[in-house]
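Two quick folds needed for the group meeting slides. Do the first one here.
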Amino acid sequence: MNRSGVLGGLCVLIAALVPLSLMTGRAMVPLEAWFDNADPRWPIIFELRLPRTLLAILIGAALGMSGAAMQGYTRNPLADPGVLGVSAMAALGAVLTLYFGLAAHAAWILPAAAVAGAIAGVFLLVALAGMTASVITFVLAGVILQSVAGSGVALALSIAPNPWAVQEILGWLMGSLTDRSIEDLRLALPFVAAGMVAMLSLGRALDALALGEASAASLGINLARTQWVLAAGVGLATGASVAASGMIGFVGLIVPHLVRTWIGGTPRQLLVPSALGGALLVLAGDTLMRAIPLESELKLGIAMSALGGPFFLAMLISMRRRAA
């Protein structure tokens, strides 16, 4: 399929889904309320649902591009910030600020801690697995990272000073865009934008690495610099996303694979389509969560895990059959 056609189609789908997202919720808000600021439903649209919709697009784009960049860098189809523990490390950094009460002192502390945890996670992952590691080695390195980060989070929960801290941490870990405001969007946007720019700058390096490290080096690619830029880019984008929404997994695993079946192509060609696909997936998921008539809104992170788990299993079965 033509790449420009896929990009155009994804943009059209996102544009079509935005008004549906703005209308959907416990109280359905029709179009006529959008243009009358005297209507009591007008603040629901522009103070609650619009920031949430834009944040869903931003987080989906960040996670989708991060997954594509990691898969291109490692030449590994299972690379993804959520599956390989990068998101868990970001969560650990954020949870520590909640546990010690540091997040209450300044709004930027929690995002900064999440970003630092994600960057550390990328470096640890590459150090544990190595750039030329097999699929199994890379997944095992991710499992180690997940286990360490999960143990840290569990420890914080078990010795939390009060039940309110436990409830806050648990609610945040399940991943949701409920009650997010324009302030959350403002905090996440600079980090995500910087991370995505860093990943886009690696397009030539990712294409060269598809030929192997030796070939990439012979083409003038600075491997050390590429690793640093990738860690910074994925860490900034993933850390800010986790800080804004909590744990939302599998987006970076699912989207690049779906996009690759449509356009194929080199790692550089997958970055922008994966960002758009991630934005569409998260926005659609969040809209669906609000449309389901339940007493309390289903967490977005739970829904993404329910979708991503079977997808991950199907990928592993497919890879096993090809290897047989």
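Then this one, please, same format:
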Amino acid sequence: MLSHYHSAIDAEAENDSHAYMLRMVGFNKRVLEAGCASGHMSEMLNAQACSVVGIEIDPLVAQSAEPWVDRVVVGNFDDDVLWNELEGEYFDAVLFGDVLEHLHDPLKTLRESVKHLLPSGMVVISVPNIAHADVKIALMKGSFPYRDSGLLDRTHFHFFTKESLFKLVREAGLVVTEFSRVSVPVFSTEIGVERSDVDDLVLNAVLKDREAETYQFVVKAVRDDGTSSLENLSDELVRLTDKLHDESRRLAELRAKFEELQEKYETDLRDLSQLRDQLDTVKRFMPMPLVRLARRVFGQH
């Protein structure tokens, strides 16, 4: 039985949370995959020579993941018994791909997972961004349209912004060492808002937010060793990632403006050509003095 979250994954894709997570985990790792569903991510990890232990709440869905994992632990993160199944086991990576938002207590789960990390281990997390422009526009309309998946998945217990995600990571005793965004343009998500739902002034204000078109955050984090050097390195990495994101947004805006101006220029050229054709037609019926005047005005000979 396939999970309704099951999807094809392209490991080389850009702007894709699954591809980002696969690159962060890397090759030849022992991975604990939280919420492995029917194994679409487990299969890709397996292709990277990783061994995988999966955790899945639905026993029927878990059966479909079995070809790609060493074993599946069936259980609920809100039940402490689940972690007893993993006692004494340690991993190079723990993966939470769009899972934490579904839990009653994501901080408790994250802290428990850290106990199963090897000293050099990592936690890789993706979560949807509740501050996407489409959600804000829907709220301004008085709407909060739950869906079967996506930003407003009806099974979400928690909603994350960049700030709240980073706070969760810190409180779990981790520091971010890699950070990526998945971007989806305004009016392009499953929320279903349209350009006519918002006026220009409000839209421009909404889009000023750096995360206005961020659909998902993807982070890689390691244990906080208590040194200021690691914390400073993490802060600098996030600062530079934000700066690159800002520059990319500005470049996209300039490119769009250039294309708009180029289109206008080409339209103006066509209009000018039509005017010249019309002028040539008119001149055939103009008295000679007016023809000479037109030539002086338009610089024609």
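Slide caption for protein two: The chain has ten helices and seven strands.
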